[in-house]
Design a protein that fits this description.
By secondary structure, the chain is mainly alpha-helical. Helices cover 58% and strands 6% of the residues. It is built from 16 helices and 6 strands. Strands 1, 2, 3 and 4 form a 4-stranded antiparallel β-sheet that branches. Helix 7 runs antiparallel to helix 8, helix 13 packs parallel to helix 15 and helix 14 crosses helix 15. The longest helix has 41 residues.
Length: 425
């Protein structure tokens, strides 16, 4: 009976084949010579460097560069095959790693269809040349790279275009982030944070996801959404400007408080609300605080007294003078009317008087209107304490009077000294 020769068990000592190994062998048989338009194998290596980041094979580049050192231009002739046969020891010395790691890299390069193994029967790598040409060799064929030239070129071109699109998109995202920061600061300075809080939160959430987006199409869609959000936010703030809700713009539908010298004017006033068609009738005059009189307030805030008529000042006249003083300082009439409704007429007049005692540099860019709006926000939170500010103003004026008295004393004391000495003498 003839013995049937069949493989038994696992192949011991042979290279384990995979589908990608077979594909690498097929690619090596499809290519002959360098691709059209290339004159040197280093051009093929340069193309591999461009495509490797987008193929996920960057870690194999040092190995491929080391293998290309053992190939020569004549090896890429149509009738030849570019086979290299460096030992693992030589590659380990070149790559500064262990021979075991070299084996893993070679297996990964075959699996990635970058090289095709050409193993001999003894599984050793060797070869020789005659007049510079390979006569026989066993090692690794570099032909799969030439067969994949078109693929490398398309992958590199598309990957670089996508990278440029991502860079441009991220720059646009940074510009949008800066724009949202400016709009947020504007809303805070003008007291519109509550009106645009939802838009700002949505913008912050979308901006936080931009860095994690790697697909150019997804990044472009996110930028379009953010652009629409920015346009909506700008439009809403511009609408607030037109409706007089921001500092520096007149409030529509609000009748300013016109000062008059007649202190017998009715103690109730009607102010039309900016968002309501019906007028809002305010409460009558509050009683003057026990710790502050209208006359003392005029003394503490001299600019307020410039808008009062002759005679002893009272709270109705002081409130009307505060309305005119507010307009002089650039505070919109509607904003002063809002202060009267929220704080009351006497506290509103006191607030304007306190603001008038501040130096212009104290307000920075917000101006007196922004300062008054900030006082209203603190009042809503229960953090506005006008009596403390009044006490500080009293202390500052008392300190200034003491300093002035001391200066006058020192200026007059030397002149009296000699005269007294002459009399005594």
């Amino acid at each position: 009976m003839d013995t049937i020769m069949v493989p038994r068990g696992t192949a011991i000592g042979l290279r384990k084949l995979t589908v990608n190994h077979l594909a690498a062998h097929r690619l090596a048989g499809d290519a002959t010579g360098l691709p059209e338009g290339m004159r040197h194998p280093n051009q093929l290596l340069a193309l591999l460097r461009r495509a490797a980041p987008f193929l996920g094979q960057t870690r194999l580049l040092p190995l491929m560069e080391a293998l290309f050192r053992f190939t020569q231009p004549q090896d890429w002739a149509p009738e030849a095959e570019p086979i290299v046969w460096p030992s693992n020891e030589a590659l380990a010395l070149t790559l500064d790693c262990s021979e075991r790691h070299v084996s893993r890299l070679l297996a990964a390069a075959i699996e990635a269809r970058l090289i095709a193994p050409r193993d001999g029967t003894d599984r050793k790598r060797r070869g020789w040349r005659e007049q510079g040409r390979i006569v026989a060799a066993w090692g690794f064929s570099l032909r799969p790279l030439a067969a994949r030239h078109t693929e490398f070129l398309s992958v590199a071109t598309a990957g670089e275009a996508g990278r440029r699109a991502l860079q441009q998109g991220r720059r646009a995202g940074r510009r949008l982030a800066q724009s949202f920061s400016q709009l947020r600061a504007l809303a805070a300075a003008t007291g519109q944070e509550a009106a645009v809080e939802g838009l700002l939160l949505a913008a912050a959430a979308q901006l936080g996801t931009l860095r994690r987006i790697e697909a150019p199409a997804a990044l472009e869609a996110a930028l379009v959404a953010l652009g629409g959000l920015e346009a909506t936010l700008r439009q809403r703030l511009e609408t607030a400007v037109e409706s007089g809700k921001m500092s520096g713009s007149p409030d529509a539908g609000v009748r300013p408080l016109i000062p008059t010298k007649d202190s017998e004017e009715t103690r109730a006033s009607t102010v039309a609300g900016p968002d309501c068609s019906a007028p809002v009738v305010e409460a009558a005059w509050e009683e003057a605080p026990a710790t502050l009189s209208a006359r003392e307030l005029v003394r503490l805030a001299p600019r307020l007294g410039g808008w009062l008529g002759a005679g002893r000042p009272d709270w109705p006249a002081v409130s009307q003078a505060a309305s005119t003083l507010a307009q002089e300082m650039g505070i919109p009439p509607g904003l002063y009317g809002q202060a009267c409704r929220r704080l009351g007429r006497q506290p509103a007049a006191l607030a304007v008087a306190l603001i008038s005692t501040r130096e212009p540099a104290h307000f920075h860019t917000a101006g007196p209107g922004g300062y008054l709006r900030g006082m209203l926000r603190r009042a809503e939170r229960g953090e506005l304490h006008l009596e403390r500010s009044l006490h500080g103003l009293r202390e500052r004026q008392a300190s200034a009077m003491r300093e002035l008295t001391a200066v006058n004393y020192h200026q007059t004391a030397p002149s009296r000294g000699p005269e007294k000495c002459d009399i005594l003498g």
